[in-house]
Specification:
- The complex is a heterodimer of chains A (249) and B (216).
- With 249 residues, chain A is mainly beta.
- Chain A has two domains: 1-39, SH3 type barrels; 43-248, Fumarylacetoacetase-like, C-terminal domain (Fumarylacetoacetate hydrolase, domain 2, Alpha-Beta Complex).
- Helices cover 8% and strands 37% of the residues of chain A.
- Chain A contains three helices and 20 strands.
- Chain A has helices at 59-64, 148-151, 198-206, and strands at 2-8, 11-18, 21-24, 29-31, 37-39, 51-55, 74-78, 83-84, 88-90, 99-100, 103-109, 125-132, 135-136, 157-158, 163-165, 176-181, 184-190, 216-218, 233-238, 242-248.
- Chain B has four helices and 15 strands.
- The longest helix of chain B is centred in the first third of the chain and has 11 residues, at 21-31.
- In chain B, 13% of the residues lie in helices and 31% in strands.
- In chain B, a hairpin with a 6-residue loop joins strand 14 (195-199) and strand 15.
- Chain B is globular.
- Classes of the chains: A mainly beta (249), B alpha+beta (216).
- At the A-B interface, strand 7 of A face strand 2 of B.
């Protein structure tokens, strides 16, 4: 099932997708265009959600950025304040020269995970969504790189529109992934080309830190990132998960 | 603070790299060299996620592969509903010692329990200007470090303003004002069996013990 969180008529609702419409908990069916605001499709957590984000996790993207593929995951942590939902606006700071999207499969952790073995990793995944982990390369500095000024800006991590139950994604490691800018395809790849795949990442992170229900792992992006300008409509899409629409402001 | 519930952050805990003069001075000769190639311009931040949080009095488990940890005594500014600093808390940002600041420090700083936090905040009105803060760090009762917050490179107000240029610290978020080093050029170290105490006049004390992690 595909789950969303939306604001409609001033109230927040959990909803599921049904035949191209949204079914609310009270049984009402509403069209997508009736939604006031799409929120990140994630249930609130009692403590701040941990958002692990991978860099250079596709060999072609690492090459594109002139890095050799890493021997262990390159990971940073984002704050929840950077997240926004589907069909929202992301701000390009004035005067920057290179701001690019990153279409990423986001893993949503389903239960407390510590010292999980690779073979059991899928038991700890609740489902998936699409994240667009924008980067503003003008602000890159070689201190805890990628530094949060590049990666943790307000509005710069759209996520959604759907949280898709894991049982509906039989092989998350073979999903087509693409981005369009104003309708033109600029990025296309497959999650099968990840250097460190979902089971590896669950095993790796849970070997030194406990993951909790609702934590996110953004799994990196393949080759094909381009500069985005105000007015551009960016659609990051993953097969079977959803098409996340965002507009640069 | 109410006694019924444990005092924990409501939002995200951010740490600040290189914000004390002595450590910045020590790094200066390396800043222009590879892989850094330049001194940092904007504040460099990291996150201490929820799995790291240990209330005062709690034991912190250290994995057998980690012979000693770095004590990261500092003060967290706690952001309130109005976006202003509501108060300050003593904290201990523990790390596995690491020599490089090139890549984000997740595997060094985000182990379970590696962030001690005192049991309550001191209101901003009562605490006054953070540059007046003085912290004392003890292990097993012996003073191992004193920290003078007049030595901050970016004083709290400037740090908050510079961060605000690129992201919003939200209601309930915490910002660590930075870690200092001692005269020997590093942070104090501690190991399993040690009791670490961080105190400052007027603040709730922070005390944690390091214990051996039990095998999984």
């Amino acid at each position: 099932m595909k789950h969303a969180r939306i604001i409609l008529e001033g109230r927040t609702h959990d909803a599921t997708e049904q035949d191209g419409r949204l079914k609310l908990a009270d049984g009402r069916l509403v069209g997508f265009d009736a939604v006031t605001t799409w929120l990140p499709p994630l249930a609130p957590t009692s403590r701040a959600r941990t958002i692990l984000a991978l860099g250079l996790n596709y060999a072609d993207h690492a090459k594109e950025l002139a890095f050799k593929a890493p021997e262990e995951p390159l990971v940073f942590i984002k704050g929840e304040g950077s997240l926004i939902g589907h069909r929202q606006k992301t701000i390009r700071p004035a005067g920057v020269t290179y701001m690019h999207y990153e279409c990423e499969l986001a893993i949503v952790v389903g239960k407390t995970a510590r010292n999980v073995k690779r073979a059991d990793a899928y038991d700890y995944i609740d489902g998936y969504t699409v994240a667009n982990d924008y980067a503003i390369r003008d602000y890159l500095e070689n201190w805890y790189r990628p530094n949060l000024r590049v990666k943790n800006r307000d509005t710069c991590t759209p996520i959604g529109p759907w949280f898709v139950d894991a049982e509906d994604v039989p092989n998350p490691m073979a999903l087509a992934l693409s981005t369009t800018v104003n309708g033109k395809v600029t990025q296309s790849g497959s999650t099968k080309d990840m250097i460190f795949d979902a089971p590896f990442l669950i095993e790796y992170f849970s070997s030194f830190m406990t993951l909790s229900q609702g934590d996110l792992i953004l799994t990196g992006t393949p080759d094909g990132v381009v500069d985005c300008h105000p007015g551009d409509v960016i659609v990051t899409e993953i097969e079977g998960i959803g098409a996340l629409v965002n507009t640069i402001a | 603070m109410s006694g019924a519930s444990t005092f924990l952050p409501r939002g995200t805990v951010y740490g600040t790299l290189l914000n004390f003069r002595r450590e910045v001075d020590a790094w200066q000769p390396r800043m222009d060299k590879t892989p850094y190639n330049a001194a940092p311009k904007a504040p460099v931040l990291y996150v201490k996620p929820a799995n790291t949080w240990t209330p005062s009095g709690g034991a912190i488990a250290v994995p057998a592969r980690v012979p000693e940890v770095e004590i990261g005594a500092t003060v967290a500014a706690v952001v309130g509903e109005d976006g202003e600093v509501a108060g300050y808390v003593l904290v201990n940002d523990l790390s596995i010692p690491h020599e490089s600041f090139y890549r984000p420090p997740v595997k060094f700083k985000c182990l379970d329990g590696f962030f001690g936090l005192a049991s309550g905040l001191r209101s901003a009105a009562e605490a006054g200007e953070p540059s007046q803060f003085r912290l004392t760090v003890k292990t097993n009762g012996a003073v191992v470090q004193t920290i003078d917050f007049a030595e901050m490179v970016r004083p709290a107000a400037r740090l908050l303003a510079d961060i605000g240029e690129f992201m919003t610290l939200r209601d309930g978020d915490w910002l660590l004002l930075g870690l200092d080093i001692t005269a020997d050029g590093r942070r104090p170290r501690a190991q399993v069996g040690d009791r670490i105490e961080i105190s400052s006049p007027g603040f709730a004390i922070l005390e944690n013990s390091l214990v051996a992690e039990t095998a999984a």
